[in-house]
C-alpha cells in the first residue's frame, strides 16, 4: 500500500513529502519567464507490490511575468539626414526598442529628453512619436545656420516601477543650393559706384586688368564658382579666367578702341540647378605710352592729396618766415655794429686832421699819444701829411704865428709830413720851432 512519486523531469522542480501520501511540488532553481514561459511536469505514483502498479499525471506550470527587463534599442546610436528648407513636421527616420517582458511590462513608449542635465527643455525642432518611435523635424532648417544637431530619445516600459533606456540620435542637415554667389569685387558695399580700372596704352597682351572676387554661402559643389565674360564693349579685347576670375588683356589696346570699356562678368555656382550673379566693370584706356598702370583715383586718395598739399603749403610758409626773420636779424646786427663804430673815438679823418695839425702847430705841441716828424722842402708847392702810412688828404698851406706878440707870423711853405717807426723817438713832443731848425 505504499505509494512513491517520481518526476520525469528534475531540472527545476522536485517533490517533497508533506504528510503520509501527500507530496509538494517545489522549485529547485530560479525560473526565468523570458527563457521558458511554461514547464510540463509529469508525476508518477507507484505502489510497492509485486509486480508494482503505477499511474502518471501531467502538470503544466506557467511562469508569470515580472518587470525585470528594460527596453533595448536595436542600435547603439542613430544618424539621420534632412535636407535644408524642409517641410514642417517631416518624418526623417524612426527608432526601435524592444522589451522582453510581457503585457504592460513590455509596452514601450518613446520621448525626447535633454541631451545634458543642465538643459531645461529638449530641442524644440525635433519630435518623436511616442508609440511608433518615428522622428519628425517640426520646422524648416537652414544649413548656413545649423548644420547638425543631436537629441536623446528615451524608451520606457509601462511596468511598476517603469524601466527605461536612452539612445543618441544625430541629425545632419544636407546643404541645398539656395544661395546665389555674392560678388565682393568689384562692387561697392556702401552703394557708391565702383571706381574705374585704368589700362595704359603700352599694356601688352596678358596683362592683368582686374579680378572678380565672389563667394558662395553654400558648401561642397554648390559653392564651386566659375567665371565667364557675358558682355563687353570690345569682346575681343578682354578675357576672363574661368576659375580665377582674373580679367586680362587678350591683345594690346589700340587707338580704334573706345576709351571707356564696359564689361559684365557672369559668376555661376555648380549647384543643381545652378545660381548666378553678375559683376560690372568699368575700364578706362589711358592714351599715350606708359609701362605701368596708372593708380586709380578715389575720394579717399583725393582727400589724401589735399592734406598733403596743405601740409606742403604750411611748411613753405614756415620756411619763408624763418628766412625773413634771419635776414632781418642779420641786417639789424650790421646796423648796430656801424652805429657803435661811428659813435666811438675817431683817430683820423680828412677834415679833422687838417684842423688838428693846425691847432697843434699854433700851440707848439702835438698830442702826446703820437710823435710826428716834419720835413720841409723848397720848391714844392704842396705840403703832404702822412699818418702811419694810410692815405691822408693833402694839407693846405698853414700860417702859423709864434708867440703872443703882434709880430707877424712867419710863413712856411707847404711841407710833407712823413711818419714811421723811426720817427717815433721819445714820448715827448717836439715843438714847431725845433722842427724848423732842421
From TrEMBL:
Organism for this UniProt entry: Bambusicola thoracicus (Chinese bamboo-partridge)
One function term, GO molecular function aspect: calcium ion binding
The organism's place on the tree of life at top rank: Eukaryota
Location in or out of the cell: Cell membrane
Membrane topology label: Single-pass type I membrane protein
Name of the protein in question: Cadherin domain-containing protein
InterPro entries, sorted: Cadherin-like_dom, Cadherin-like_sf, Cadherin_C, Cadherin_CS, Protocadherin/Cadherin-CA
Keywords: Calcium, Cell adhesion, Cell membrane, Glycoprotein, Membrane, Repeat, Signal, Transmembrane, Transmembrane helix
GO cellular component entries: plasma membrane
Location of the Cadherin domain: 13-73, 74-183, 199-295
Amino acid at each position: 500500500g505504499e505509494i512513491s512519486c517520481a518526476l520525469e523531469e528534475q531540472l527545476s522542480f522536485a517533490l517533497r513529502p508533506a504528510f503520509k501520501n501527500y507530496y509538494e511540488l517545489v522549485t529547485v532553481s530560479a525560473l526565468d519567464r523570458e527563457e521558458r514561459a511554461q514547464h510540463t511536469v509529469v508525476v508518477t505514483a507507484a505502489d510497492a507490490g509485486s509486480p508494482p502498479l503505477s499511474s502518471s499525471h501531467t502538470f503544466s506550470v506557467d511562469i508569470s511575468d515580472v518587470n525585470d527587463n528594460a527596453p533595448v534599442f536595436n542600435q547603439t546610436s542613430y544618424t539621420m539626414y534632412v535636407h535644408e528648407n524642409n517641410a514642417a513636421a517631416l518624418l526623417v527616420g524612426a527608432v526601435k526598442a524592444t522589451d522582453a517582458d510581457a503585457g504592460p511590462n513590455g509596452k514601450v513608449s518613446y520621448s525626447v529628453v535633454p541631451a545634458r542635465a543642465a538643459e531645461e527643455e529638449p530641442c524644440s525642432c525635433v519630435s518623436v512619436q511616442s508609440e511608433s518611435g518615428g522622428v519628425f523635424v517640426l520646422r524648416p532648417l537652414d544649413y548656413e545656420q545649423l548644420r547638425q544637431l543631436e537629441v536623446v530619445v528615451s524608451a520606457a516600459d509601462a511596468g511598476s516601477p517603469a524601466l527605461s533606456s536612452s539612445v543618441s540620435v544625430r541629425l545632419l542637415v544636407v546643404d541645398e543650393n539656395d544661395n546665389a554667389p555674392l560678388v565682393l569685387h568689384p562692387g561697392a558695399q556702401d552703394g557708391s559706384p565702383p571706381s574705374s580700372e585704368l589700362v595704359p596704352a603700352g599694356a601688352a597682351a596678358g596683362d592683368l586688368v582686374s579680378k572678380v572676387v565672389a563667394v558662395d554661402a553654400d558648401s561642397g559643389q554648390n559653392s564651386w564658382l566659375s567665371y565667364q565674360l557675358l558682355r563687353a564693349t570690345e569682346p575681343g579685347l578682354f578675357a576672363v579666367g574661368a576659375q580665377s576670375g582674373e580679367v586680362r588683356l587678350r591683345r594690346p589696346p589700340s587707338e580704334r578702341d573706345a576709351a571707356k570699356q564696359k564689361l559684365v562678368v557672369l559668376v555661376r555656382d555648380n549647384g543643381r540647378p545652378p545660381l548666378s550673379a553678375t559683376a560690372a566693370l568699368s575700364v578706362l584706356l589711358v592714351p599715350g605710352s606708359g609701362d605701368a598702370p596708372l593708380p586709380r583715383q578715389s575720394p579717399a586718395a583725393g582727400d589724401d592729396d589735399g592734406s598733403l598739399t596743405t601740409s606742403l603749403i604750411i611748411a613753405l610758409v614756415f620756411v619763408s618766415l624763418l628766412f625773413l626773420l634771419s635776414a632781418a636779424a642779420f641786417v639789424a646786427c650790421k646796423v648796430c655794429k656801424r652805429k657803435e663804430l661811428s659813435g666811438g673815438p675817431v683817430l683820423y679823418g680828412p677834415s679833422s686832421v687838417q684842423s688838428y695839425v693846425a691847432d697843434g702847430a699854433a700851440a707848439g705841441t702835438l698830442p702826446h699819444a703820437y710823435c710826428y716828424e716834419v720835413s720841409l722842402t723848397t720848391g714844392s708847392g704842396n705840403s703832404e701829411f702822412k699818418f702811419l702810412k694810410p692815405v691822408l688828404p693833402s694839407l693846405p698851406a698853414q700860417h702859423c704865428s709864434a708867440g703872443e706878440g703882434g709880430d707877424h707870423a712867419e710863413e712856411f711853405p707847404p711841407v710833407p709830413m712823413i711818419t714811421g717807426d723811426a720817427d717815433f723817438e721819445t714820448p715827448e713832443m717836439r715843438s714847431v720851432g725845433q722842427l724848423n731848425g732842421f
